[in-house]
């Protein structure tokens, strides 16, 4: 009797929470969460407990190329004169008003969250704001404008910058506020797999070690933090797709015919790239699993799949700048799928998310937690 009453109450509760749960296309249509005292335990973490977001990554995270390209301007001029990094629109930490970004979704539920990147800028110069510090040796030293950006090896330097910036921000309680750090790196690594001066720095083994040490350092130097490891895209699939849509983008090659991705030059290179990309993903999963078996109350690592089957994507996902970086629609979609994955246990996350401009955003309810399992 008592048992069945409890069961009834439980199922009523489930019904209520299901009816509150909804999927919307604009975060503003989500019901607000009831205010509460932030969790003391990462097992009980809600999105509105997050007070700081940071990101480590490469040109994708920096929002390179989001707004596409004006075909009337030669690429070499555009790269010097145009603002090519739209950090404020980056799926990860962009904070431009109304942009579809993970930062903005958290901000909707927690108005005091800090750490957004805003606006746009020339590619390859580091910003004073928290968020990311892009190592831009390519763009600065070699003037390698298409692929600004970092490889996993650079995470350590980015992280030092992130930590010191977080510590220096006045309204942040570095010890006690909850933080989320999004990490996505690998595009430049896999492209470098065929470059003789690079290949030994970008093997899956090395990649895994660099990412692992960054996560280790986060654990030992940043209190109360959730690390969101986002898998890298298997870019080897892109070139075939974009080659059949050559009208869509302008600048797959620079004046010398270089695509900026040494592995894209021939089928062997593309295979190498695919192999490395798979290897990176494997390493990220290993890192996620390592921290699953080593949990604490104030630190967790979650992992987001992006095993994209690009051949099934529409070109709209890509920037018209280079058919390599994601477009604004691409970033908006990425923000939604990674956000939605935050509430699901690993076993229920979609393995091959399919690009969809009508993708919805999950509205968390009071009983939803960031799922760290
Ligand atoms: C929201 O979308 C997810 C993923 O498509 C789906 O599993 C879930 O049932 C949807 N929830 C509601 C309340 O529509």
Outline:
The protein is α/β, with parallel strands linked by helices. Mean pLDDT is 84; it is low at 12-18 and 124-147.
Structure description:
The protein has helices at residues 2-20, 75-81, 102-109, 137-141, 155-168, 187-191, 204-221, 238-243, 267-292, 328-342; strands spanning 22-24, 50-57, 178-184, 225-230, 299-304, 361-363. α5 packs parallel to α7. It has a single domain, classed as 3-Layer(aba) Sandwich (Rossmann fold), CATH 3.40.50. With 373 residues, the chain is α/β, with parallel strands linked by helices. The model is unreliable at 12-18 and 124-147 (pLDDT under 50). It binds 2-acetamido-2-deoxy-beta-D-glucopyranose. The site of 2-acetamido-2-deoxy-beta-D-glucopyranose (NAG) has 4 residues, from β1.
